[in-house]
Amino acid sequence: MQFRRLGRDGPEISVVGVGAWAIGGPWKFGWGPQDDDESIAALHKAFESGVSWVDTAAVYGLGHSEEVVGQVVREHGGEVLTFTKCGRPWYGREGNEPTYDLRPETIRFELEQSLKRLGTDHVDLYQFHWPDTETGTPVEDSWAAMAELVEEGKVRWAGVSNFDVGLLERCERIRHVDSLQPPYSLLDRAAAAELIPWAAANGTGVICYSPLGSGLLTGSFDAERVRNLPEGDWRRTDDDFRPPRLEANLELARRLEPLAERHGVPVAAVAVAWALATDGVTGAIVGARRPSQVDGWLPAGNLRLDADDLAALG
Q: Phi and psi (nearest 5°) for 134?
């Protein structure tokens, strides 16, 4: 397993981390029903195989993902870093509809709830999930609240997810941004234009999410599987899973097959390794709902694609 430092001041982390979005189970942006026993087994498999961190969020399954993660981290007993996120609160809202809220008091409230679910007194990396588009709170006020949580010892490192360069620069003037979490994959390369270079220039680590295109780059998808996605799986209505983009995405996944055969690894591992080959990327967040899915991407942790491999993928 390769390890890299998360930014200039962060911890050494394995280049692959396990993502806990799907294991939250049903909610507005869920992946359909999940089996907690399989989710628990998948997390144990990842940690026992050298993965040193897990990324979750309060809103995943409206708290259930954090509960499952907290249980497994305690059962594992070893040093596993827990990353979670705030800023999409649903508490007390009609239909549990999440909003976008980074008011300082909301950030503190959400952290306290997350600590209870995770069963710990601190979060290793606490992240703003999305920009605040609802309350009008200046990001400087939000980030100052995050800085206070670090000073108090409730948060070890502070990061953001889905922020643009303008917001990053405003945060950086208040306190260093330890980590940035953007979407990044063969299907969505936008972060390479400005975000990843900004992070590299400012000593900010990058942990990219959806390096498998939410499953499209695993080599196990076809049009029939898309048609049979369960009710409650957000991908049923996503444009990447509908014509005409679906056909192009599946064709790209097929281009991974000869590279996977050459290296003797699953297709998913090649897709993740491509993201990790980008200068400035520290690690990749890869989901798993059952142990077999961990087996699909785990080899990316020690897979180095050469120039010919990267050229073949454009």
A: -115, -40
CA atoms within 13 A on the CB side of 146: 29
Q: What percent of the chain has pLDDT over 70?
A: 100
Q: Is the pLDDT of residue 116 over 90?
A: yes
Active site residues: 60
- Please give the structure tokens belonging to residue 40: 């628990």
∠27-32-38 over CA atoms, to 5°?
110
Maximum distance among all Cα pairs of the chain, rounded to whole angstroms: 53
Q: Phi/psi at 230 (nearest 5 deg)?
A: -70, 155
Residue 78 pLDDT > 80:
no
**Do 107 and 145 touch, CB atoms closer than 8 A?**
yes
Residue with tokens 């400035």: 280
Domain of residue 138 covers 3-312
Q: Helix H segments across 77-193?
A: 104-118, 139-151, 165-172
210 CB-side CA count, 13 A:
17
> In angstroms, rounded to a whole number, what is the distance separating the alpha carbons of residues 100 and 102?
7
Q: Which CATH number characterizes residue 165's domain? A: 3.20.20.100
Whether 234 has a pLDDT exceeding 80, the answer reads no
Q: What does the block give as tokens for 211? A: 């390096």
| Total domain count, the chain | 1
Are the C-beta atoms of residues 86 and 111 closer than 8 Å to each other? yes
Cα four-point dihedral sign 58, 160, 126, 142: negative
Q: Record the pTM.
A: 0.92
